[in-house]
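Narrative summary of target 7.
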Amino acid sequence: MSRKVLIPLYNNEVAPRFDLATDVMTVEYDKTGKVSESVIVLPQASSEDLCALATSGNADVVICGGIGEEYYQYLVWKGITVYDDVTGPVDRIVHELRRGRLSSGTNLYHHPFSA
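Modeled conformation, tokenized:
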């Protein structure tokens, strides 16, 4: 069974804010690996358009930085798992998701003061 993931982008990283991203990566993977990957460029940044893209594209998971409460609740109500407050390079984020090690608040950047 495959899973579809939607990730708002800022360059090759998870966008810091859901509502300001115009580039969106969609990734589909199954237990054998990545099935497909594409980047969609929206004409303008819009939380409504991202929510519509997630629901119409049958996304199972949305991974984002900050997201407004009403959009978070809408996506969850639609049955989409939302991992918010996530930071890091997209490839590493997807890797961690596939390994079952991603959660809201995941930060994959090294900080000089962290252990």
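The beta strands are 3-10, 13-14, 23-30, 33-41, 61-63, 81-83.
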